[in-house]
Amino acid sequence: MTNKDSFILTSYNIHKGMSPLNRQVKMQGIAQALEVVAPDILCLQEVQGQNLKRNMQYNEYPDQAQHEWFGEYLKLQDSYGKNSEYQNGHHGNAVLSRFPLDPKHNVNITVNRLEQRGVLHCEVQPPDWDMPVVVLCAHLNLFERDRIKQYQAISDYVRHVIDPKQPLILAGDFNDWKKLSCDKLASDLGMVEAFKHCHGQLLPTFPAKLPVLSLDRIYVRNLSIKDAWVHTGKPWSKLSDHLPLSAELGLL
Fold first, then answer.
1. How far are the Cα atoms of 37, 68, 198 from residue 228, in angstroms, in the given order?
2. Where does the Endonuclease/exonuclease/phosphatase domain start and stop, copy by copy (predicted)?
């Protein structure tokens, strides 16, 4: 942790712990790389709660749910929101935290039967802060027409459930290659995107080996943004199909 007034948040689509082409298990490599980053709060997407087929197929694929496995490895508290269930298992989003973690709700933002999506709502309590930070970990659809409905669902949820004075983070894989969510969702909720704030633009995170699309986001409200960066190059280019991004956030 940087100091008592700020913390590091990292958001990462881990591709179910598999390499970009699904040929190798990358759990150990992801965990070791994240250990170096040492985030205080970690928002993960495509977290495998269970996959019986891969358990049998790969010796190095843990029997344990991935959010629990990463939690133990990184010494972080963990919470999981199941979004998609199928014959051999299920996957979803996870929030992990060095601070006390209070899971609240897994918001269903599914708009078609082919893509089960959700937003995991947790609260974390940094030491010596007057109020907890709301963390929303999101994974949105591939098509813009679906995302427009999901922006609305997230906006409605935030308006009805989150205290407007509370520090708020909305992070995750927005699949927003058209770069419209900043206009449609962030402005609607009075949120600032960390990379737009620090760099004046969104930075590419996909595909990890040669990133050209800016799919991932960190939005905040009632927090200061001290810095924001994408984790590029090795080992990240070989661990997942997305690159992780981090921001140092603090009190206003």
1. 13, 27, 6
2. 11-242
Largest CA distance in the chain: 49
Contact 140, 117 (CB under 8 A): yes
Number of other CB atoms surrounding residue 54 within 10 Å: 19
DSSP β-ladder status, 216-221 and 224-230: unpaired
CA 83-210-91 angle, to 5 degrees, is 10
Separation CA 83–CA 217 (nearest Å): 19
Give the tokens for residue 210.
């040669």
Topology adopted by domain 6-250: Deoxyribonuclease I; Chain A (3.60.10)
Rounded CA gap, 144 and 193, in Å? 19
Strand 89-97 relative to strand 41-51, pairing: antiparallel
pLDDT in tens, 88-133: 899 999 999 999 999 999 999 999 988 999 999 999 999 999 999 9
- Give kind and range of the element (H or E) at residue 36: helix 27-37
Model confidence pTM above 0.90: yes
**Cβ neighbours, 10 Å, residue 187:** 11
